[in-house]
């Protein structure tokens, strides 16, 4: 599980005894950050209809179908469907966001004023249900923690054992964070119509990236990494990018 030391040093996590709560207590973004370049590799149709989440695993790519209570695995983007997991929800709930923790899938669920994440193991069983502090637009896994976005101005680190909010990282350059992905020690966040932003493992803005599929996207928007390639999914179209740093 991610240690909070780096974030504490960066001033991003503040004890609530000071009267300052997570989200907005950290320092300003660096004045100058790197500009990564995204080179498009092509667009591919994925799933049937829209997509509400995407996650890459060593065996393929999982796609959460929009409006359907199922997660489909494909051998590759735009390839053959090789597995399906049914997701049981109650009336009024909506699944959004998909992530892989190295052993199992996580799917985010929002219904009314409640939100939670389900961990689904290799046998398609729900092995854990974790209550989340806010609605889920998208999620990822980083260093053992869940990383969630709810459409607000930041992203959250969540303890996957009990749903405890470990930290909230403000994203000052986006009004509404719609998508999140992780790659190594980096956290990528995005909003349609804006450059993607890359944060390091201390929650400090590291780089901006102009990504055409994000600039022209609508919501829902989702991202993942397949190896070192960024995959942006909007509607039923996935676009791959090679990132030059």
Commentary on this structure:
- A hairpin with a 4-residue loop joins strand 6 (93-100) and strand 7.
- The chain has helices spanning 5-10, 212-215; strands at 34-45, 51-57, 60-65, 70-74, 81-86, 93-100, 105-111, 114-120, 126-131, 138-142, 145-149, 154-158, 165-170, 179-183, 186-190, 196-199, 205-210, 221-226, 229-234, 237-244.
- The strands form four sheets. An eight-stranded mixed sheet has the order 14-15-16-17-1-20-19-18. A four-stranded antiparallel sheet has the order 2-3-4-5, with no helix packed on it. The chain has a four-stranded antiparallel sheet with strand order 6-7-8-9, with no helix packed on it.
- The chain has one domain (5-244): Neuraminidase (6 Propeller), CATH 2.120.10.
- The chain is globular.
- The protein has two helices and 20 strands.
- The chain starts with a helix and ends with a strand.
- 4% of the residues lie in helices and 51% in strands.
- The protein is mostly beta strands and 245 residues long.
